[in-house]
Amino acid sequence: MMNGAVPFEGERVGLFHYRVTAEGWQRLLRQNARMMTFLAFWADEEWATALFLLEGEQPLLLSTAVEQGHYQAVSPHFPAAQWGERIARDLWGVEAWSALDDSPAVDDGSWSLTAPLSSRPLPVGEGGGQPLPGCRIEPSRTSVPGLLGVDYVLADGVMQQVEVQIAAGHRGVLSRLIGLTPEEAMPLVGRISAGGFVSHPLAFLRALEQAESRRVDPKERDRRLILLEVERMGLHLFDLARTAHHAGAGLVASLCDHAREHLASLCAGHGLSRRLTGSIRLGGSGVEAMIPFARAVIQEMSPRLEQIRPLARLFDGRLKGLATVPTEMAWDHALGGVTGRASGRYLDMRYMDEGVRPQAMGGAGRHEGDAWARNRQRLAEIEESLRLLDCMTADHGQESEWQPLPRTDEGLGVAEGARGDVWYHVVLKEGRLASVQIRDPVLPLLAVLGTVLEGHEPEQLDLALASLGLSPAGAAL
């Protein structure tokens, strides 16, 4: 069988999903490590699954059976898989042979059950589980919006051997989603991460629509695209403000905060929630009100962006060379969003969206990979979002080609959020969620975070984390 440029033998079980033998799994990983872009890994008691991108941004899901609680690790070939392997071990109790790292990821030692999502979870013995090692900076003390522990060795005044922990933020989201109807699941999905009040439910909804072979009305499609761009602008302003604050640029931070609050007021004034929570719904709503809303955003935000841009240049020197992500690292770990595009990985899943306006996109992309490049990238993408809104108000609801697909009750959905591509894989059974897997763009970032932070002074940590737009909530599910 040939899929894109990658040859393999397997059983097709979904639109982009194939199952291979253990031997085929190892052979494929070994022979095609440079022909596929790794995106995500997850496993349960039955199947280990990896998500890849092939040429043309075509997704590929590969699964192999978990045999007697074991499978061959992906991380020796794709190091970004190690977080998925660790999470699967904590939640399901399945072990990855030859894994790069088998330490706990979300089990902080306080759980009453081991492998709580497995069919046979075991109670933890008297005295509790093994607690995680302490961190120099406890999870509640870092400046990120969420719980992230940071540990390091101080050598010659700089951080070395940097490690991060997300276990303190684990909420048991996956266990709560399984068995729900899509209607019951949507409120929970919509609040998984403050970095994706639109992108998470949109990716989930697209996965459901693919599973059920449902087409979205073009006006509702454009409504969602408008909301996605408005969220992008708001989150970029948030990250710009935090970066400026930690860099000591108080005026720029204040301007970005005020612009974001004004954007929130525009949302509220047009019948939406301030941060767009609950704006993506099954069936859609409020299509008619989107054109006035989009026009108001363009009119009100354009002059504010022009005010911020020249002032942001005044503290460029404090950002250059900080928390640099090399281009090779961005590609090897499929870093998305601003972090990836500021490092030379010019990949944007919006180009794959039905109804995309490519004439308003492009031109936004840097290669330096540092905090300065990320700031410039955010400003460029806010301007790009305004152009997209302008295009969508001009031809709102324009028809596009659509090819009906057979219903499979399995779907893969993606939405390009402000911080990268969010993916959902869902399996339906009798109208309920039999399986849900989530790939938030913070997962590959966690895999390289220690390396990116090494060599910096501890006093630079808050600025580095703010510049990276890190929010661990999307991983600590």
TrEMBL record:
SUPFAM superfamilies: HydB/Nqo4-like, Nqo5-like. It comes from the Bacteria. Keywords: Oxidoreductase. InterPro entries: ComplexI_49kDa-like, NADH_Q_OxRdtase_suD, NADH_quin_OxRdtase_su_C/D-like, NiFe-Hase_large. Residues 259-391 form the NADH-quinone oxidoreductase subunit D domain. The keyword Oxidoreductase applies. Coiled coil: none annotated. This is NADH-quinone oxidoreductase subunit D domain-containing protein.
